[in-house]
Protein: Carbonic anhydrase
Amino acid sequence: MLLDILLVLHLQVLVIASSSSAEEDESSERDAQRSKGSSHQHHWGYHDQDAWLSAFEHCSGKAQSPVNIDTHKVFYEPNLPPIKLEGYDLAGSPALTLINNGHTLQLSLPSSMRIMRGFDHVYVAAQLHFHWGTTEVPGSEHTIDHVHFPAEIHVVHYNSRYANLAEAAGKADGLAVLGGFIGIGLRDNDNYEKILSALTDISIEESDTEIPGFNVRHLLPDSLDRFYRYSGSLTTPPCFQTVSWTLFNDSIRVSRRQLAALEDTLKTEHNKLLSKNFRAPQLLHGRKVLASFHTGSTARIASEAPPSETQDSNIMESNGKNVSFTVYLQQDIKTARSSVY
Structure:
């Protein structure tokens, strides 16, 4: 009789343990799925950006990116410190990993690359990536006076106060992104070719390859003195509003052939072409966009009041005073992609 009782108790313990284990496995699976859903890899796409608002709570915030830069409504801030970079020359350094993650072309960067000046803290490089369109649709995320450029480069850094990018991403002062507009020039860009020449090796989603180290500084404009600055967010889910954006006024040039390689080589899941990977511009909701330089006769000092919500439409009022961009815009105001300079 005693043995029967012990046997029943033992079976009950096994059932409870099995049930608990199953619940733990189910919980772990839910956590894994939730983690995957909020990662940069899966469960969201550019074809239905409205779905981001319900799936990722931060994507419906009031400080989202990208935005349109109205060059006549920005605030001139003469006290913006210039950007000083350190460790960007990786020539002779270990190979760099280039990844097709299904959403973008991404290059992993070493922590020796840093922004030493320009912010209140030192920011450590983590990765750079690109946004682009198609032959018919230019694909920069930010716009200048409502005009898209063919593509845009983002160099992502995290605050050195934090251990890594993942920890910093959710902190108010966590991230600093350097953004550059990519236009079309008459000849190949040798610096960009170091990346673009490897695209055929990673055409399949989730594939990667290694490329020799090179001077990453050469992927950015020659001059870093003229830039726009505003507070915003990641432009992809989970859309954390923790990014200090720096957008350089001077653009970068690649050839038509190189741009076509970026637009036509990489694939996503189900062998679909990876293109038009840019988010639509978001409203400013009263945020100031600062400029380190005078953009025209209507530019204001940063100490003035921010624009009202009625100015959020950022109506274009080009008067030809913005030297770098206005020359570019005059060539083809409807689509920056067709311009060659």
